[in-house]
Amino acid sequence: MTLATALRRIAQTGAALAVLTSPTPAPAADGPTEFPSSFRNQEIATNGTTLHVRVGGSGPAVVLLHGYGDTGDMWAPLAAGLAQHHTVIVPDLRGMGLSARAEAGFEKVNQAEDITGVMDALHADRAEVVAHDIGNMVAFALASRHGDRVTKLVLMDAPVPGVGPWEEILKNPLLWHFRFGGPDMERLVAGRERIYLDRFWNDFSANPANFPESSRAHYAQLYAAPGRMHAGFRQFAAFDQDAIDNRAWLAAHGKMRMPVLAIGGAASFGATMAAVMQAAAIDVQERVIAGSGHWLMEEQPAATSAAITTFLDPPPAQVSKEGVIPTALSLEQTQAMPQAGAGTGTSGVGGIHTVLLSGDPAKPGPYALEIHVPPNTAIAAHTHRDDRFATVISGTWYFGYGSNAADAANKPLTAGALYTEPAGAAHFAFTRAEGAVVRLTGVGPSDTVYVSAPAPR
To answer: Which region, left, alpha or beta, applies to residue 55 given φ > 0 means left and ψ of -120 to 50 means alpha?
Structure first.
């Protein structure tokens, strides 16, 4: 699906990014789903403000960041399961939910420091981070600026300012609320918080009935508290600075390296969520949740929780009797495996490193390998005797079919792209300024036979 198609679908279905603001001191227990009784509530002073934080469980830390129209209460169903193997940390963002009122500091780079302060207070040196909506933007700032502290990242159904197709997304008329704010807007919404929020809960759901009334009443009460709508509007008002900050960081540092799971609601951002993150991370997995719009944890809590849990705690790889590993390895995992140079079924080009994941391409039977190709590397047109299936894991991979690269069209393929190398079909590939990692599977014995001069760079 192209970005244009995804944006048209968002406009047609009314399912896009929903972001709002405003809380009132109502205990989390009054919410639609309660956190387990083993969780405790803490008020943690951090970065010049105080955040309300729910903490429970034991084990490696995981931080859950909510978005607009929700508070940390949205994570209760997921937190209950994660607490069996994780220390679960669930803050309300700056100025929102039950956190302290705040007048400023809503730039996402600054809010990332709010979260590192919470992690420090709870002695969590590193954590997996799961986020939705505005939480995505804070989580991105956290993971990019503090990559040593974020081991895995899950972002759900919202763009990130300045990243990937941000400017195209801004053109969607359903996102009028991105520019809605200021004192007059606050006065217009005062006393009408439920009316304002219902608009988003209804328009951005696949089926509005799946956003429960108990949740609506709970969040409307929280957002009606003094200063909360102000905080929400300020979250959006910071987008321009957030975009400047993110573009500058990516230009200076390049893509993030931790594994990323990009989740979209089928009736909302869908696969566009992965397209956003492929512009900023080298190891991106995609999940689209059927039957859900933007409000994934309210509309499809079981399916969404399962996708997140499987990513954070994948089952151990099982090797079949044929020696094939059916579960996908992350880029981080394969980079830790032994690498070699040329071998059967590879191009033999100097500088390319090969990781053999399973089997042996020189022998009969299935095999899987990964090639790590440096920038400005060309692989001339060639053939293989076996049918092969390929997945681009990271970078940009220029691939084309034909016996002469100069006469054949090539296509730039980015992370997640799939293609085939049919037996006997000539094909070529190359990289430019960015290297690439490509995963290949086939049934050996394989070989490589060159048929033309080197491909252009």
So the answer is: beta
